Amino acid sequence: MIVREWRARAGRESASLYPRHFNDAVLPMLRKLEGFVAGSLLSRIIDEHVEFLVMTRWDSLECIRGFAGPEIDKAVVEPAAAAALLSYDRTVQHYDVVDEAS
Fold first, then answer.
1. pLDDT tens, 16-74?
2. Which of 4, 43, 93, 95 is 20 to 30 A from 65 in CA distance terms?
3. 22-46 per-residue burial string, b: 16 or more CB within 10 A, e: under 16
4. Beta strands 36-46 and 2-11, pairing class
5. Which domains are present in the chain?
6. What is the maximum alpha-carbon separation in the chain?
7. What pTM does this model have?
8. pLDDT in tens, 44-59
9. Alpha helices by DSSP H, 1-102
């Protein structure tokens, strides 16, 4: 299992726009992809901004290539997402899930 991590920032006054986009556009699209397991959107307030942390879970790096293309470390950011954000990371990180509990 692989976790794909990405961060972005929004102004407090427009902080509701990205979660709406994530739920209405991103998750429905991801759910159609082979190997997509789950997605989480986390947030925290930092000064005048809201930072978002997106974590998606995938069966394999090959499944991530089906979503992101051959440059899997490059962030996939739709124009509607970019419009809702002040800034965002251009790259992502991938982590192997070593252990987990529930």
1. 999 999 999 999 999 999 999 999 999 999 999 999 999 999 999 999 999 999 999 99
2. 43
3. beeebeeebeeeebbeebebeeeee
4. unpaired
5. 2-96 (3.30.70.100)
6. 38
7. 0.93
8. 999 999 999 999 999 9
9. 17-21, 27-31, 61-68, 79-84
